[in-house]
């Protein structure tokens, strides 16, 4: 029994880490724990968290997706262009999401049908999708999109004190948590990452599962882009650069194994909170952005090192 | 004689579950000492403690009269203790030679520049000693399980060994390979090497060993001289009761044809395979390793691509392109290699059992936790899988119990046809009988059972008909009454065909 306890404690490692960081920051900077700052942090976190949630699924299957930043850019560009052309906001958003889903599905198909390693496949599509975004927007930001109230709500709205992006994040979290814990697809995701061969021989539709995780990641990345567009009322073809790194970092800090089959989405949520809180706190403390990078890297290392311990 | 290894009062717990209780065990130079016990009795764990893979909670280990406390297997190796592990530890993308010298590569003084030529030569030499002809540059993943096992054995023999621990080395070997292995063991014994021999095959124990120590539920049930004991006594020591008939009787009305295979081919592996199996029938499949037995059924199951051939289930042709189709057609397949093909080791016993059954356990893709738990508990009971609970990771189960999980997976789909590839490999004598009983029960329910096995007594004891494969062709199909060791071996080595063609 005692060992079980230790295991559970270790699983909670990221949570404890988060609490420690929050305590330190709130001592150093009293404004940190103010209600509006908390929601501010959560809102900043939501973009990365949405992408990282998808990334968690991909990594659980033993894959990786480097193209999320480019999908974000093209997804938001599609929506922005539609809006600028005067299309119905809901339809524009839907088209942006579909674009994201299609790009994700393309990733999945290259990985499954083309049998290309996920790292290589998405490295290639990362460039391709970025290039397409630049072609599509002519390399210029799309601005002054719409004064549609409903579109602005997506990124700027509030429900009571809670910013809409935070609500989106929670909805995505709950849905994915449900999928992972309760559905056959979720079980398949863990099984494929744990032993692909055995999964195939058990009659699990491995290819379908892989296409699914990349598609979900594509949709979530595009949605993150749409939220950004709604907040800024513009779409930048260079948006989302190197977002894949923050997303992967959140997944890893949360305790999901990069080799697949082992991990959880709650950990990823905590992981993105840790990154977000650090960003926000270090900003409040006026730490130079250069040094912030060092801190972030160190945190990732600590997380992985702690995770190593339960291997023996 | 002074023991070379003396383990006294060893205890060990995993997460609060005690798996070894005050076990004492010793080996003297020049003996082959059998270590027996049911699946999960703690044999592998005891040996892993000896070699420093696990740490002990209590007890003392002396090697050559000196107390030792190995921190990892390398320490033990320095004292001349090497192990052939139950689970294969071959790295697929490395060559045979690279696997042989993994961790102890020969290099030019200490530069780390490898002397590949010498290593290749040594590899060849050690393998030839075991009667194995293998190209040292071959990729390990292209080897059969038996060949991989031989590489592991050669690897252990390459080291200066004083104590050799063999954890079920013959589970994946053919009779001929086993014979050579036994010759080498006797050679080592005459050189004064002490050998610990773990096996579930009683015949081998009586043939090879001098003494036997039996573990039961983590306690020592006693040590005997082989000369002074017999099978019944050992079984009683192992399971605490007599077992009775080795192969339980089956009284089943054999029914309509369930499965018919016509002209199944996969060039390079096998050709033009015809056979059929009826409801309630058990078809044994014999043949030498490498004859293509597994490949035929992997292809039938859709795990390999066939070039031609038709498959009929209950008289209707079915198209099988992948294992999913096979499952849908009512075919289950208990694979040969449980670690790489049968189980998702990180997942729990429950989740492994339910994996091929998720469709029936779910509604609109949502798994019913209750149904899943009930199914898992049901199979843990029925198959007597020894696990503390259904949520334990399957990798922490003993080898034999892992095997039962793989069988349980497929029994769960309520198959029309169940293919079992070496279903009792590494399984203890009691559990073997339970597996035979499961097979009989399935047959009684009208399942057509196909059992591939390298253990001839098992094939003879369990089958209604026996299909013998030789070099990718069906050499002969024998009825239960006419089959015996001789005519099976004759057909398996190509003898039958020769006789037949000469007669014409
Ligand atoms: N790393 C581990 N964590 C938790 N439990 C373990 C671990 N290794 C072994 N066990 C448990 O210890 C017991 C003994 O296992 P062990 O592998 O030693 O059995 P065995 O006698 O070698 O059986 P078999 O004949 O099936 O190989 C089993 O109940 C097993 O589940
Ligand atoms: Mg064992």
TrEMBL record, chain A:
It is found in: Cell membrane. Its main location: membrane. It is a multi-pass membrane protein. The chain crosses the membrane at residues 12-35, 47-78, 90-110, 117-137, 157-180, 211-229, 265-284. Keywords: Cell membrane, Membrane, Transmembrane, Transmembrane helix. InterPro entries: ABC_transp_permease (IPR001851). The keyword Cell membrane applies. PANTHER family: ABC TRANSPORTER PERMEASE PROTEIN YPHD-RELATED-RELATED, RIBOSE IMPORT PERMEASE PROTEIN RBSC. This is Ribose transport system permease protein.
Automatic annotation (TrEMBL), chain B:
It comes from the Bacteria. GO terms for molecular function: ATP binding. Keywords: ATP-binding, Cell membrane, Membrane, Nucleotide-binding, Repeat, Sugar transport, Translocase, Transport. Pfam families: ABC_tran. Residues 5-242, 254-496 form the ABC transporter domain. InterPro entries: AAA+_ATPase, ABC_carbohydrate_import_ATPase, ABC_transporter-like_ATP-bd, ABC_transporter-like_CS, P-loop_NTPase. The keyword Aminoacyl-tRNA synthetase does not apply. The keyword Oxidoreductase does not apply. CDD domains: ABC_Carb_Monos_I, ABC_Carb_Monos_II. SUPFAM superfamilies: P-loop containing nucleoside triphosphate hydrolases. This is Ribose transport system ATP-binding protein. It comes from Scopulibacillus daqui.
């Amino acid at each position: 029994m005692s060992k079980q306890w230790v295991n559970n404690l270790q699983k909670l490692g990221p949570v404890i880490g988060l609490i420690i960081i929050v305590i330190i920051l709130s001592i150093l900077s009293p404004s940190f724990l103010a209600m509006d700052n908390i929601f501010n942090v959560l809102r900043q976190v939501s973009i990365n968290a949405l992408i990282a949630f998808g990334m968690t699924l991909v990594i659980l299957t033993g894959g990786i997706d480097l193209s999320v930043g480019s999908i974000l850019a093209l997804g938001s560009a599609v929506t922005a262009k539609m809006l600028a052309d005067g299309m119905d906001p809901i339809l524009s958003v839907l088209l942006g999401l579909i674009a994201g889903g299609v790009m994700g599905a393309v990733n999945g198909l290259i990985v499954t049908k083309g049998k290309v390693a996920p790292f290589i496949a998405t490295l290639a599509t990362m460039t391709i999708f970025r290039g397409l975004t630049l072609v599509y927007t002519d390399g210029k930001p799309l601005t002054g999109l719409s004064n549609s109230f409903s579109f602005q709500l997506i990124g700027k709205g509030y429900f009571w004190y809670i910013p809409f992006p935070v609500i989106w994040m929670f909805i995505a979290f709950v849905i994915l948590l449900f999928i992972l814990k309760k559905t056959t697809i979720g079980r398949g995701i863990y099984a494929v990452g744990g032993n692909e061969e055995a999964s195939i021989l058990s009659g699990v539709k491995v290819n379908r599962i892989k296409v699914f995780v990349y598609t979900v990641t594509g949709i979530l990345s595009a949605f993150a882009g749409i939220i950004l567009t709604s907040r800024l009322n513009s779409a930048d073809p260079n948006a989302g650069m190197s977002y894949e790194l923050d997303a992967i970092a959140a997944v890893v800090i949360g305790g999901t194994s990069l080799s697949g089959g082992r991990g959880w989405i709650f950990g990823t949520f905590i992981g993105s909170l840790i990154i977000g809180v650090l960003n926000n706190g270090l900003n409040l403390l006026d730490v130079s952005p250069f040094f912030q990078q060092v801190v972030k890297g160190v945190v990732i290392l600590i997380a992985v090192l702690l995770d190593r311990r339960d291997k023996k | 004689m002074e023991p070379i290894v003396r383990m006294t009062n060893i205890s060990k717990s995993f997460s609060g579950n005690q798996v070894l209780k005050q076990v004492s065990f010793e080996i003297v130079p020049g003996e082959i000492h059998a270590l027996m016990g049911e699946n999960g009795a703690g044999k592998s764990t005891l040996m892993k403690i000896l070699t420093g893979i696990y740490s002990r909670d209590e007890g003392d280990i002396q090697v050559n009269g000196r107390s030792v406390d190995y921190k990892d297997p390398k320490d033990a190796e320095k004292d001349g203790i090497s192990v052939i592990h139950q689970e294969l530890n071959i790295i697929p993308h490395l060559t045979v030679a690279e696997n042989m010298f993994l961790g102890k590569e020969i290099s030019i003084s200490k530069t780390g520049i490898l002397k590949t030529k010498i290593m290749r030569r040594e590899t060849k030499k050690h393998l030839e000693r075991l009667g194995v002809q293998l190209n040292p540059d071959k990729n390990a993943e292209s080897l059969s399980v038996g060949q991989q096992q031989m590489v592991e054995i050669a690897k252990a023999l390459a080291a200066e060994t004083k104590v050799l621990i063999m954890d079920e080395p013959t589970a994946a070997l053919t009779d001929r390979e086993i014979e050579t292995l036994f010759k080498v063991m006797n050679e080592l014994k005459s050189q004064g090497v002490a050998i610990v021999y773990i096996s579930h095959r009683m015949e081998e124990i009586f043939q090879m060993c001098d003494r036997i120590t039996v573990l039961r539920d983590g306690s020592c049930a006693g040590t005997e001289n082989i000369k002074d004991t017999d099978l019944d006594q050992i079984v009683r020591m192992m399971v605490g009761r007599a077992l009775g008939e080795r192969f339980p009787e089956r009284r089943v009305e054999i029914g309509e044809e369930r499965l018919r295979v016509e002209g199944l081919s996969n060039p390079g592996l096998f050709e033009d395979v015809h056979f059929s199996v009826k409801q309630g029938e058990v078809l044994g499949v014999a043949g030498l390793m490498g004859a293509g037995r597994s490949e035929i059924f992997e292809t039938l199951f859709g795990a390999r691509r066939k070039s031609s051939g038709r498959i009929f289930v209950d008289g209707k042709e079915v198209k099988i392109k992948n294992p999913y189709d096979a499952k849908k057609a009512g075919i289950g397949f208990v694979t040969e290699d449980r670690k790489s093909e049968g189980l998702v080791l990180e997942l729990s016993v429950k989740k492994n059992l339910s994996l091929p059954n998720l469709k029936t356990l779910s509604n609109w893709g949502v798994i019913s936790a209750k149904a899943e738990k009930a199914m898992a508990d049901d199979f843990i009971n029925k198959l007597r899988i020894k696990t503390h609970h259904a949520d334990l990771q399957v990798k922490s189960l003993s080898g034999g119990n892992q095997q039962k999980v793989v069988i349980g997976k497929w029994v769960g789909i309520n198959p029309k046809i169940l293919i079992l590839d070496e279903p009792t490999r590494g399984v203890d004598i009691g559990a073997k009988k339970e597996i035979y009983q499961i097979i009989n029960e399935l047959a009684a329910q009208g399942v057509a059972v196909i059992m591939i096995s390298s253990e001839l007594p098992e094939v003879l004891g369990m089958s209604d008909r026996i299909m013998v494969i030789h070099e990718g062709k069906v050499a002969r199909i024998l009825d239960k009454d006419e089959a015996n060791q001789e005519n099976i071996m004759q057909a398996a080595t190509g003898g039958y065909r020769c006789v037949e063609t000469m007669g014409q």
